[in-house]
Design brief:
This protein is α/β, with parallel strands linked by helices. The protein contains twelve helices and eight strands. It has an eight-stranded mixed beta sheet, with helices on both faces. The two termini are 31 Å apart. About 2% of the residues have low confidence. Bound molecules: nicotinamide-adenine-dinucleotide.
Length: 302
């Protein structure tokens, strides 16, 4: 059992359960909100518009509904978890939060800006967690007055079903903040692995190459997308093919990750396949836009 004080920190304003603010109500933010609410945390899910935030809450509800169908939780847990999620616009709601999880798009400047703004609003001992999948934590925190409270807390998609969280302390992250981030992930029922702060950490570095190589094979006409997906699934026992996975992750996010790895290592193995870039320019982002390597006529993110 996790000691709540290890999660909540020393802020006397912290309620019985620390209030969690999730910034960005997209694929990951909605899943993280659902998972935190399920663990009993009151959650505020914010985005740049009210509509995006509300849609994120709906998707959190859908993810919880899916967990009921799979027998992971009962309907009562679903309902009470959804009742713990409220929504808002912008970062003002950080005032009452003791754990802040940023799940905004994979863009360094945007994340720096979000945390810079949060630093002006959030309680001084609130934990800053970034769900970045590839950007170095030290670099995200570069302009903060107190970069010691920023930790990489990398959840996986779909959050309710994936048991792993990768924890990445930045170069100057304080050990107590890493401990709180670990306690938070553990309280959410996740298994934690820790990575050094290097582009792509452990998981994304491996995954990006796998997806990119599949895109190159499709680009070169080696095989069809279906045959490549089938080869990875039946040949390697992967639960999803690389194109199914890229569509789930989002092609914009997959491309941004490859660019971060290229920028960080300057190794040609991270050179993004032009097909990915073209598809992103055409707004074919995968499930979230209704079209990626495959079509999703119903659209949506579930
Ligand atoms: N998609 C995945 O499978 C996956 C897995 C693990 C980690 N991640 C990481 O999680 C983060 C979010 O990815 P995603 O797939 O959820 O992206 P997404 O595009 O689905 O959602 C991002 C959301 O952030 C919102 N946003 C943009 N600027 C904002 C701001 N200033 N304040 C508040 N909200 C803002 C957008 O409107 C959007 O709703 C990225 O860093 C990504 O690398 C993604």
């Amino acid at each position: 059992m996790t000691d709540p004080s290890a999660v909540e920190g020393s802020d006397p304003r912290a309620s019985v359960r620390a209030r969690v603010l999730v910034v960005g109500a997209g694929i990951m933010g909605s899943g993280i909100a659902a998972q935190a609410a399920l663990a009993g945390f009151p959650v505020t899910l914010v985005d740049v518009t009210d509509e995006f935030a509300r849609r994120g809450r709906e998707n959190a509800g859908r993810a919880l509904g899916h967990a009921v169908k799979k027998g992971m939780i009962d309907a009562e847990a679903q309902e009470s978890a959804l009742g713990r999620i409220d929504t808002g616009i912008g970062l003002r709601r950080a005032e009452g939060a003791s754990i802040i999880v940023e799940a905004a798009p994979e863009k360094l400047e945007l994340k720096r800006q979000v945390f810079g703004d949060l630093e002006e609003i959030a309680p001084p001992d609130a934990l800053f967690a970034s769900n970045t999948s590839s950007l170095p934590i030290t670099s995200i925190g570069e302009r903060l007055k107190d970069p010691g409270r920023l930790v990489g807390v990398h959840f996986f998609n779909p959050v309710l079903q994936m048991p792993l969280v990768e924890i990445i302390p930045g170069h100057t992250t304080r050990p107590d903040m890493t401990e709180r981030a670990t306690a938070f992930a553990t309280a959410l029922g996740k298994t934690v692995v820790t990575s050094r702060d290097t582009p792509g950490f452990v998981t994304t570095r491996a995954l990006a190459v796998l997806v990119n190589e599949a895109a190159w094979m499709l680009y070169e006409g080696v095989a069809t997308r279906e045959d490549i997906d089938t080869a990875y699934k039946l040949g390697f026992h992967h639960p999803m093919g690389p194109f199914e996975l890229a569509d789930l992750v989002g092609l914009d996010t997959s491309l941004a990750i490859l660019d971060v790895l290229w920028e960080g290592f300057h190794d040609p193995k991270y050179r993004a396949c032009p097909l990915l870039r073209t598809m992103v320019s055409a707004h074919q982002l995968g499930r979230k836009s209704g079209q990626g390597f495959y079509s999703y006529p119903a659209g949506g993110r579930s």
